[in-house]
């Protein structure tokens, strides 16, 4: 039974990473008509409503300490992560952000080692980590001139760090004994609430008329219903089964999927560097999963 449960955790993490890897295409299309914060807010609003419809039972009988954990998870995993990542893209190259954000599992491993006392960092894990990071570097820097912009790169590092905290927080939330949809819904609620103050000093002027365009509302539905509502539930459930470190390793697959979907949908060319990077990323994921 335990082996079946572990297999399910890996399947959920894999499917989530694949879907998250394709969100680049949908977001890129929406950025033609909407500001980053507008996309973020509407995406998670759709996801929040979807989770209510999927499982309307309210979350009851929880303590203030548990509520603080939901609040922290919403702040880290929804508001801060996506704001840091999106704003970083306005200051530095996407190649820089892609590589830096991908080191989130490293931060997860370090934080989990010191705070949870249940995850151990082995030599094989570090070897896999370095191999995957090299692969991601080849994919992200492929054909691009690397430049350092402190503001953008620091924001990308911030995104990786807050995602690591989110992974640990969801691991803690999984021990509360509530339904995964209930807890994910509460996280979304706090994420949306924390976005509100940013609407006063970031570009936010949502034009409902633009939602009448089929391409726009279809992409919003994809981001809200699948990439947010469904994937956050599957990701949190995978963390519950596999732990914070193992689940976070699947983040390595996101840029790989992005390269593949860019070729299929945006007709971008695959070079030798990106091909080697894809293989290295998959090898790094395999190595990091090895027990010894």
UniProtKB/TrEMBL annotation:
Belongs to the EamA transporter family. It comes from Ohessyouella blattaphilus. SUPFAM superfamilies: Multidrug resistance efflux transporter EmrE. InterPro entries: AA-Vitamin_Transporters, EamA_dom, EmrE-like. This is EamA family transporter. It comes from the Bacteria. The chain crosses the membrane at residues 12-31, 37-56, 68-91, 97-116, 123-142, 154-175, 187-205, 217-237, 249-266, 272-288. Its main location: membrane. Residues 8-140, 151-287 form the EamA domain. Keywords: Cell membrane, Membrane, Transmembrane, Transmembrane helix. It is found in: Cell membrane. It is a multi-pass membrane protein.
């Amino acid at each position: 039974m335990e082996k079946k449960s572990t297999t399910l955790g890996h399947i959920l993490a894999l499917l989530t990473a694949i879907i998250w890897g394709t969100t680049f295409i949908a977001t890129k299309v929406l950025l033609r008509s909407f500001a980053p914060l507008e996309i973020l807010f509407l995406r998670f609003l759709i996801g929040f409503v979807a989770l209510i419809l999927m499982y309307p039972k309210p979350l009851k009988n929880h303590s203030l300490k548990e509520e603080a954990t939901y609040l922290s998870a919403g702040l880290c995993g929804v508001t801060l992560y996506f704001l840091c990542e999106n704003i970083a893209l306005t200051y530095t190259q996407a190649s820089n952000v892609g590589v830096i954000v991908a080191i989130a599992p490293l931060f997860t491993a370090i934080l989990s080692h010191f705070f949870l006392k249940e995850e151990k960092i082995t030599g094989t894990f570090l070897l896999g980590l370095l191999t995957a990071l090299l692969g991601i570097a080849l994919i992200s820097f492929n054909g691009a001139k690397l430049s350092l912009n402190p503001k953008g790169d620091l924001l990308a590092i911030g995104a990786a760090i807050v995602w690591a905290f989110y992974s640990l927080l969801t691991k803690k939330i999984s021990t509360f004994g509530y339904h995964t949809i209930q807890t994910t819904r509460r996280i979304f609620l706090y994420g949306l609430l924390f976005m509100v103050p940013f609407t006063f000093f970031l570009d936010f002027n949502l034009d409902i008329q633009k939602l009448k365009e089929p391409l726009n509302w279809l992409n919003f539905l994809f981001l809200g219903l699948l990439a947010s509502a469904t994937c956050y539930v599957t990701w949190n459930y995978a963390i519950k089964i596999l732990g914070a470190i193992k689940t976070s390793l699947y983040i390595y697959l996101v840029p790989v999927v992005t390269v593949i979907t860019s070729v299929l949908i945006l007709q971008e060319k695959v070079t030798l560097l990106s091909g080697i990077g894809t293989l290295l990323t998959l090898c790094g994921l395999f190595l990091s999963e090895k027990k010894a």
